[in-house]
């Protein structure tokens, strides 16, 4: 009896395994796990870093055990160099944007221990960068790319990234569109170019940390940084209460950085055409 039933049971197991390997399925399972890990950040900077470590572990398990694929985008031997390179791009991006807007803000020194301020800001920014990049560029972008190609993946994840920021304080339709372009497109392009999560994490981390330390709201969230910064210019330039991300300047600067990244990714054969999956 058991011998007769074995082929049927093995067939069901095979179908279940194939179903789990579908990009849509492992994307949802991974998103649920990484999203749950990110909730630890609500407990403060230290728990946020713990949540980031848990999110990395969840991502590896889902990719290797469910999707049945390796994770070269998380290769440990490349983590530090790629993180630092990405951070350099992030500092350049924010530096150029702020320098173009120096006359539109008033800066004054903030009170508090500089070491504590920097450490806290860096910990919060790193935890958020890791979990958000694993979710958006690691899971969503790669899954959609396998179903519809790189361009659909880039556009859809950028749009979703912007729309989710509508829930942030002081958000508007414009600020969400700006986030979709300067963050969704730029970070997506960075991943497609380097195919390395740590590079994108470094860029994202340096971006948020630099803005926060300047005392400018980070996507609508007030930042206790090294400076107290008050916008004096037009909201279209300063971003108003939402912060620098709602300024038209980073949108332009972000595109000027993202376009060469996408060109380089195309030349390296790292983009899958519309409707064609990437191996």
Outline the structure in words:
- With 279 residues, the chain is mainly α.
- The chain has a domain at 75-267.
- The chain is built from ten helices and two strands, in the order H-H-H-H-E-H-H-H-H-E-H-H.
- The protein has helices spanning 2-20, 23-38, 45-66, 79-99, 114-148, 150-164, 173-194, 197-213, 235-238, 248-267; strands at 105-109, 227-231.
- A two-stranded antiparallel ribbon has the order 1-2.
- Helix 6 (150-164) runs antiparallel to helix 7 (173-194).
- The model has no long low-confidence stretch (mean pLDDT 93).
What's the structural blueprint in terms of helices and strands?
Blueprint: H1 2-20, H2 23-38, H3 45-66, H4 79-99, E1 105-109, H5 114-148, H6 150-164, H7 173-194, H8 197-213, E2 227-231, H9 235-238, H10 248-267
Antiparallel strand pairs: 1-2
Helix pairs in contact: 2-3, 2-5, 3-5, 4-8, 4-10, 5-6, 5-8, 6-7, 7-8, 7-10
**Total E-strand runs:** 2
Q: What fraction strand?
A: under 5%
Major sheet attributes: 2 strands, antiparallel
Shape: globular
Radius of gyration: 20 Å
The helix-and-strand class reads mainly alpha
Helix content: 55-70%
Mean residue pLDDT = 93
Helix/strand order, N-terminal first = HHHHEHHHHEHH
Given as residue ranges, the uncertain stretches (5+ residues, pLDDT < 50) are: none
Strand order of the largest sheet: 1-2
Work out the helix count: 10
From the N-terminal CA to the C-terminal CA, the straight-line distance is 42 Å
